[in-house]
């Protein structure tokens, strides 16, 4: 009897990226609209990917099949 394979969670794969060193990155929030009130410095900072830490990092890796 064949064992089942774990499938990649497609929603997670579109939102998160795992680096070669094992970090989990995601896009910043609050960058979609209402940017006129934000400073240019803040907008540049929000364009960068942020890293995920703690228990959430382990959960995301499991969804992506990397744990």
From TrEMBL:
<dbReference type="GO" id="GO:1990904">
    <property type="term" value="C:ribonucleoprotein complex"/>
</dbReference>
<dbReference type="InterPro" id="IPR001706">
    <property type="entry name" value="Ribosomal_bL35"/>
</dbReference>
<dbReference type="GO" id="GO:0003735">
    <property type="term" value="F:structural constituent of ribosome"/>
</dbReference>
<protein>
    <recommendedName>
        <fullName>Large ribosomal subunit protein bL35</fullName>
    </recommendedName>
</protein>
<dbReference type="InterPro" id="IPR037229">
    <property type="entry name" value="Ribosomal_bL35_sf"/>
</dbReference>
<dbReference type="GO" id="GO:0006412">
    <property type="term" value="P:translation"/>
</dbReference>
<comment type="similarity">
    <text>Belongs to the bacterial ribosomal protein bL35 family.</text>
</comment>
<keyword id="KW-0687">Ribonucleoprotein</keyword>
<dbReference type="Pfam" id="PF01632">
    <property type="entry name" value="Ribosomal_L35p"/>
</dbReference>
<keyword id="KW-0689">Ribosomal protein</keyword>
<dbReference type="GO" id="GO:0005840">
    <property type="term" value="C:ribosome"/>
</dbReference>
<dbReference type="InterPro" id="IPR021137">
    <property type="entry name" value="Ribosomal_bL35-like"/>
</dbReference>
<dbReference type="InterPro" id="IPR018265">
    <property type="entry name" value="Ribosomal_bL35_CS"/>
</dbReference>
């Amino acid at each position: 009897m064949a064992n089942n394979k774990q499938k990649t969670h497609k929603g997670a794969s579109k939102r998160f990226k795992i680096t070669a060193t094992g970090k989990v990155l995601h896009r910043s929030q609050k960058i979609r609209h209402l940017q006129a009130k934000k400073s240019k410095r803040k907008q540049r900072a929000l364009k960068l990917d942020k890293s995920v830490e703690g228990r959430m990092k382990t959960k995301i890796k499991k969804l992506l099949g990397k744990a």
